[in-house]
Specification:
Layout (H helix, E strand, L loop, with lengths): L1 E7 L2 E7 L8 E6 L5 H12 L7 H11 L4 E6 L14 H21 L11 E5 L4 E4 L8 E5 L4 E8 L2 E6 L2 E6 L3 E3 L2 H11 L7 E5 L3 E4 L8 E5 L4 E11 L7 E10 L2 E6 L3 E3 L13 E13 L3 E11 L11 E8 L4 E8 L4 E10 L2 E9 L6 E9 L2 E4 L5
Length: about 400
């Protein structure tokens, strides 16, 4: 009997099994180069279904091996023996096969010189998105085999574009790349956390609605987990990327930190930037994409008061720009209110907005995006009391 087995992707098994005509109890051999399987089958095509002498099949197997078919993993199960009157067989042919094929291959397998070790285990992944579909094909319209929840483990067999072919127990199907977190991805996640250790937040914010926290910016990147509405985040960076599903459109992404051990990316539309309560009445419909404390004073009436510099952004402006102007708020003790000490509109400001405390007073710096959309030019400012002036560039 000739059997073909596919026990793992990329390997085919050929099994010769005992029948009343042959002295072999069972022999199994796996082919390391599946691409040659068709050539192998062609050689047997005309003979498998017909009559053949007891040792013809091994002879033809030997021909295939001599023709370039490489044995990758072999094992003999049971033993080589005979039953009945062995003289009824062609002893000369039997000894030829045993010496030329079975014995050398068996000996090589024992020594480990001709047989390769068992292939690597499939990569494992964890479902990270709620209600993730395991589908019959790599299409969002294909039939759902099973709905999986976060924490479920699957084996990855291969990647096809933005889909993984996976195995869950005895079920094979397809899942979107964005719904799975592979073991290899965990190192990248840790790199993101490490790179953010020294990053100072530009502002804080709350999620307007539930949103997917992703490992990298992009709608098809892996999801760390889903954040619920009203989750607090620290905003570290901002990046603009073309949308993969809509030509000519851009997405703005925010690199955020939810805790010291979790850093990821959110669509900026999910985040509502925080505005300090004291200056909230002065926003004039601007979004405060950056907010920094410049100075603190102890007011006899109001208590602790902070001065602020903010990066304000007009809605609908160039998505590559983080803020379109800066504004400095100081406190007027006699009038018990915030006032604008400095304001500069019409900027192409980009992160980071940085504040430094010096013996002479606070200083701040922001960066302006050049006409090429790539270069960033630093602009430095100093404060003398409530007076703000830009530092002159050397030369």
């Amino acid at each position: 009997m000739l059997c073909l087995e596919r026990n793992r992707p990329g390997l085919a098994g050929i099994t010769l099994q005992k029948d009343f005509h042959t002295p072999f109890r069972r022999f199994q051999c796996r082919i390391a180069e599946p691409g040659q399987l068709n050539a192998f089958l062609e050689q047997f095509k005309r003979r498998i279904e017909g009559e053949f002498s007891p040792f013809q099949l091994p002879d033809y197997l030997l021909e295939a091996l001599e023709g370039g078919l490489k044995v990758g993993h072999c094992r003999i199960i049971g033993s080589i023996g005979h039953s009945g009157n062995f003289t009824r067989y062609n002893n000369q042919r039997a000894m030829k096969i045993l010496s030329r094929f079975l014995v050398p291959v068996s000996f090589a397998c024992i020594l480990g010189t001709a047989c390769t070790p068992k292939g690597p285990e499939p990569e494992r992944a964890t479902v990270n998105a709620e209600h993730s579909s395991l589908r019959t094909r790599n299409s969002a319209t294909s039939r759902t085999l099973k709905v999986l929840e976060p924490g479920t483990h699957v084996e990855i067999l291969e990647r096809e574009g933005r889909w993984y072919r996976v195995r869950l127990d005895d079920i094979e199907g397809y899942m979107e790349v964005s719904t799975l977190l592979t073991d290899a991805m965990r190192d990248h996640i840790q790199e993101n956390i490490n790179s953010a250790i020294n990053q100072v937040p530009q502002n804080t914010g709350l999620l307007r609605e539930d949103g997917n926290l992703r490992v990298d910016p992009g709608r098809n990147t892996s999801i760390l987990r889903q954040l619920r509405a009203q989750t607090a985040v620290e905003v570290l960076e901002r990046k603009t990327l073309p949308r993969e599903d809509a030509a000519g459109k851009l997405d703005s992404w925010l690199k955020v930190r939810t805790s010291p051990t979790e850093v990821g990316w959110l669509l900026s539309s999910f985040v509502e930037f925080d505005v300090p309560e004291g200056i909230a009445p002065y926003t004039e419909d601007f979004a405060y994409s950056a907010v920094k404390v410049l100075h603190e004073i102890d007011d006899p009436v109001a208590g602790l008061i902070r001065w602020y510099i903010v990066g304000e952004r007009r809605p609908g402006f160039d998505p590559n720009i983080d803020f379109t102007g800066i504004r400095v708020f100081t406190w007027n003790q006699s009038k018990q209110r915030y006032e604008t000490a400095y304001r500069r509109p019409g900027l192409r400001g980009v992160y980071p907005l940085e504040v430094t405390q010096t013996p002479k007073g606070p200083t701040f710096r922001f960066y302006e995006l050049g006409p090429d959309g790539k270069t960033k030019e630093p602009r430095d400012f100093v404060m003398n009391g409530v007076v703000v002036r830009e530092s002159k560039k050397p030369g």
